[in-house]
Amino acid sequence: MLQQVMCSALETIVNKAVSLNIHPNDQLNALDQKTLAVKLTELGFPLCFSINDGNILVTKLIARADCTITSSINTLQALKKEQQLTELIKQDRLDVEGDIKVAQHFTSLAETLDIDWQTELAKHIGDVATHKIVQLSKTVKNKLVFVSKQIQADSGEYLVHEKRLVVTSRQLDHFNQGVLAVNLQTKQVENRLHQLVERFHINSKG
Amino acid sequence: MSSQENNHQDDSSDNTTDTTTHFGYQTVAKDDKVSMVAGVFDSVAAQYDVMNDLMSFGIHRLWKRFTIDASGVRPGNIVLDLAGGTGDLTAKFSQLVGREGQVILADINSSMLNVGRDKLRDRGLVQNIEYVQANAQYLPFEDNTFDIVTIAFGLRNVTDKDMALRSIYRVLKPGGRLLVLEFSKPEYELINKAYDFYSFNILPKIGKIVAKDGDSYQYLAESIRMHPDQETLKTMMDNAGFEQTSYKNLTAGVVALHKGYKF
Question: How many residue contacts between A and B have a Cβ separation below 8 Å?
Answer without folding.
Answer: 47
